[in-house]
Amino acid sequence: MANTKSAEKAARQAVKHRTRNVALRSRARSALRKAGEDIASGNKTEATTSYRAAASVVDSLVNKGLVHKNKASRHKKRLAARLKKLA
Known about the structure:
This protein is mostly helical and 87 residues long. It is built from three helices and no strands. The longest helix is centred in the first third of the chain and has 37 residues, at 5-41. It is elongated and about 60 Å long.
């Protein structure tokens, strides 16, 4: 239990931030999963579209400070390599 007013406010903010962060991370994981599935299906147009969407979502997480830029880069690089193999 929080002892001071500022600690109470910090606890309230932490709950809000955690809720938002969980939703954003989930959205990113879903986008990455969909991009991977589209690449595996072999449909180049769908795969390209979902790759761009996933890259955009991952980049937004970097800007919000939820994911390190190197981790985002690694995800995008691996997806791009798999996408390139389709050509």
